[in-house]
Amino acid sequence: MILNRLGTSGLQVSRIGLGMMSYGSSRFQSWVLPPADGVRFVRLALDRGINFFDTADFYSLGQSEETLGRAVASLTERANVVIATKVGMPAGPGPNDRGLSRKHIMAGVDASLRRLKTDYIDLYQLHNPDPQTPIEETIDAMGDVVRAGKALYIGASNYPAWELALANQSAMQMHPGLRFVSTQMEYNLTFREEERETVPMCISQGIGALAYSPLARGWLAGNRLKPRQLTKREKGRAAGDMKAKANYGSEHDRRIAQRLAEVALKRGVPPARVALAWLLSRPYVSSIICGVLEPSHLDEAVAATELKLSAGEIIALEELYEPQRPKDIHAPITTSGKRPDGAPA
Q: Which end of the chain is more exposed for a tag (fewer CB within 10 A), N or C?
């Protein structure tokens, strides 16, 4: 597995990262696998040279972090992995159990450290913008988290270009030496809106792009057009992933999925491998965060790192794209403020 620098920082991450939202509790999302499966997939990822693991306090309201912490503690040395987690989404029932206030960030990082069974987080990310909290308050708290050694680097997720630029500028002004090293964005062949402003901003500021939903929540794997080919777990996600139904499946998406299938057929490889290889061809993408429900999903992601697309193939994949409306990053995931096991978060 080839490693990339995360933006222009010195941190080295595998080109494929394992997204841990898939593991925790089915009470969070019906298709989520139990912790034992999460530990197994972390082991498979480590065996394939993957060192980058992304989670959030919001995923299964802490159980995803617990799963990752248990896996790392039992399978490898802490120094061998890059752990990324996020703060900002609801992590409990109280008014201060969410958002990016100093109070929630300070409580949130300590709670994440406990669940992850570690004394530091490699990459601590703002899960999404908080319009109720001044950016200066958020950045000052993040700077204190880094100075305390609880996090080594900071990143963002789901930030529009202007807000990411403001946050990064505030970080550099308020805490010399502190800056955002990465931002997570929904990015795939059917949704490329971040190329307009966020990607150029990342390139100019040395911020690494982390692509999530690289297969458009399953649409670019090719099997949504042929449901009979879905495994039991894939059928479960296809049926229960309301966010996928809300954001993907338009005629535009179908046309691109069909073109992807044509390119993949000529290459003699699965469509998912081609879709991931297209993302990996973008020099500003530091890593792709892949959700994995089957070992074959992990194998395809790793195989994509070896697939080099021709200029003609890239043109064929891109030429059908049309401007898209922003995806609803919250719909329709909700939380009661309790952990899936019924206990308070």
A: N
